[in-house]
Structures are given as C-alpha cells and as structure tokens.
Amino acid sequence: MVGEQFNHKYHLVQFIDSGSFGGVFLANEVIADRVIRQVALKIFLVETSQLDLQIAELRLATRLKHPHLLDCFSSEVGFEDEEDEEEKYLGLAMEPATESLSQYLAKRETLPPQEVRNIIGQIASALVFLHSQNIVHRDLKPENILRVGEVWKVADFGISRVLTQGTSTKTTQQIGTPVYQPPESYQGEIRPGWDVWSLGILLQQMLTGKHPFSANTITGPELMMKVMMQEPEFPEGLSDDFLTIVKGCLVKNPKERWTAQQVLDAVKPRVSSSRDTLSSIADLDLSSERAGINYYKLRDLLAAKKWKDADRETAERMWEVMGRQKEEWLGVEDIKKFPCKDLKIIDKLWVHYSQGKFGFSVQKKIWEECGSPTEYNDDWERFGEAVGWREGEAVGWRWAFRRSWMSYQSVVDSPKEASLPTTIWVGLLMEVARCAYSSLAQRLVNCSK
Ligand SMILES: Nc1ncnc2c1ncn2[C@@H]1O[C@H](COP(=O)(O)OP(=O)(O)OP(=O)(O)O)[C@@H](O)[C@H]1O
Ligand SMILES: [Mg+2]
User: Fold this and answer.
1) pLDDT of residue 175
2) 24 CB near ligand 1 (under 6 Å)
3) Which domains does the chain have, with CATH numbers?
4) Who's near 320: CB < 8 A, 6+ residues apart?
C-alpha cells in the first residue's frame, strides 16, 4: 500500500504498524499537489451497509477535543476504485505520534514514580473528559497511549464503539484486551469503571513491570477466572499511596470502584511547589485567548532547547495576539492589554524548560531587585548587566574596556543569565523599550493577582 493514494487527499508514505482491525500508515495530506502536513492514517475495512453509521461514529472521534486525547482530524473513505461492493475502506486521519507507551515501556523495565504519576495524571484527565461525554473507551492499553512530544495522549477513543456495531466477523470481535479487561466486561457490562480498572493495571505495570493477575504468564479462561474471582497480587515495594490508588481501581464491583476523577486527584502533587512540575506543564492549556493562536510550537522549540527559534516564536505569537505582525513591535498600550492567559503560558513554558533561567518573570524579578527602573539611569544599566543584555568591549588604542548594550542579535546568538526572551523588544527604541519593559513587569504583577 505504501506509495499508493488512499484517496485524493491522503497519500501513504510509510507503514507504521498493524492492529487487530487494520493498519496505521504515515500519510501526506495533499491539497492541489502540495503536501500540507503529515498525518497518521488508520485504515480498516467495514461493511458497506454499516458505512454511514460508522462514518458518523468516526466523526464523533474527530469532534472530541482534549489536550490528552489524540487529535483526530477527519474520517475518510478510500481505495474507491476497488471493486468490492460488500466492504469499503475507512480511514481516520490523526496527529502522528512519536511513539506508543508500549514502545516506551519496552525500552525500560519500570518507570520512576514521578513519571508514572505524570503519565497516569494525563491519561486520567482524558478519561474524566471522555466519561463526562458518556463515552467508555474500553480498550485502554499501552498501544493506545501515544506520546506526542512530551505529552501523553489517549488514542482510539470512540472507535471501539464503532467496531462493536458492525455485524461481520471482523467487527463483532471481542472488544478490549483481556489483560486490561475488568470482571464485569465478561458479562457484557459497560460502565466508565471499565477504563479505571484498565488504568489501575497500567499503573502497576508501569511501576513494577508486573501484572496484578499474573497476566504476563496466563491467558484465556484462566485469566478470566482470576480476574473475576481472585484478589489482585501486589508486588512488594509498591508505596502506600500507589497501593491505595491501584486498590481503588481494582475494586471488583464497578459501582464501588474509584472514578477517573479520584485517580486524577490522587496523583496530583500534594504540595504545589513554586517550580512547575512536568505534569502541570503537560496539563497546561496551550491555546491563546485569541482564536486560532496557540503555543504548541513554542513548547516544542523550548523542549528541544532551541532558544533562538523559541525567542523568535515568542515574539511572533505576541505580535500576532495583538495584531502587530506587520509592525513587529508592541507598544505600551498593547502590553497593558496583553491577555493574562497568554502571558502566563509563555512565561511558564520558558521558566519550565530553561529550569528557571529564562522567562519574563525571571527578568521581572531581576528588574525589581535593580530598583524597578522606568527611565535611563544607573539602575537601568545595572538591570541590563544583570539580565545579560550588556557586554564589555575593547575601545581605543589602549584596549580599554567599556560596558555597552549588546545588539538583539548578539543576545540571541549567545544567551546568558536571564537574557531571553528578548526579540519581543527588537523593534523598539531604547527609550520606548524601558517604558514598555516596566509596563510588561506591571502586567505580570497584575496578571498574577
Ligand atoms: N497516530 C499514531 N501515530 C503513530 N503511531 C500510531 C498512531 N496510531 C496508532 N499507532 C501505532 O500503530 C499501531 C497499530 O495501531 P492500532 O490502533 O491499529 O492497533 P493497536 O492499538 O495495536 O491494537 P487494537 O487494534 O487492538 O486497537 C499501534 O501499536 C500504535 O502504537
Ligand atoms: Mg490502537
């Protein structure tokens, strides 16, 4: 199939992997002969009589949006020239992921507790959302948890629902994966608690590499009996707080089992530290208050420590937010009105990924320590020194040294102390920059109230 066109819009470029219902390909999305983006295209066969119903179900997947649900772009029909009247190929275009949790776990025997908390928190928040929409995933397993950059996302939500509605042998296949299936699933009972059970199994698996019902070694009816009748086995060394969560998830009666919200509350850090934790960054909503603008690219650049590009991206998004892309500067009035939500996102991302070195709030603190200068004076120069915007240069024939302001370019090329972000000030004269700087500092203060 690689090299073929699924339909006029999607051209298959690489096979990723197969599952029990079909395969996933990397595909180019092509419009007017131009590649717009790469997507992951999941392809499976469905009965023609079920087509409309199933497209409608896939559309549901494309409508569900949450930071920890894999983004599904569109549902498609493909290979239309194939002469089969009975069955059709359906496709679901989604954001391509870096790897699955199953691949991630294959490289490590177990994960450190903090990372497990972080991953479970992200999955639980997706489940809280799905359950609020009356959707039970029913196939939560490491293959369906995908990493996109640093964010973990749940995939294949809604699709298991689609697949149960078909009548052919392909579509009436047992839903769920036995290892992660709760007792009531064997009686065909579907409740949100199904997913919470799977989450509990996943939690123990990530922490210890061991399954609570020895499912690393047993399968079929033996596993079913154990899941339905026996108490789970908890390996030694599972800390009390994790044990409480796993036990809450593995209560046999689904009505008494914990909810996804309870799991989420339990894995959240108890003491909120002043430093942002990875999980709070992962939970950060990265969309701007202005429609159509977001900070995903900024996050990815910062995560890759591409400071120069991240600095440019920061400036471009901030100009865009205030409709100043053409001018490429922000005036004092713009800064006074700059949305708090956006300023907080930008600052959190910078502070987090630079481990407290860069960011507007870091600069602001230094600015305050230097006496909060609003005009050109010694304090402003001291601030410039401390923040890393000034340097020494040799002057005159005696090689005397003089301190002076660096060009924006040289700040960006060799960032030091707290010198970033800086490009946002690039179009401003020094006079204006000082005024603008103090208004940004003031805006940060107001936004944190
Ligand atoms: N958007 C994606 N980006 C990258 N890889 C993906 C994406 N979606 C799925 N995959 C990978 O492709 C493989 C096949 O996925 P698929 O959903 O068809 O099967 P599965 O999840 O392994 O099993 P099942 O069919 O039981 O759901 C998975 O192992 C998954 O890791
Ligand atoms: Mg899958």
Assistant:
1) 59
2) yes
3) 10-94 (3.30.200.20), 99-267 (1.10.510.10), 273-447 (1.25.40)
4) 290, 293
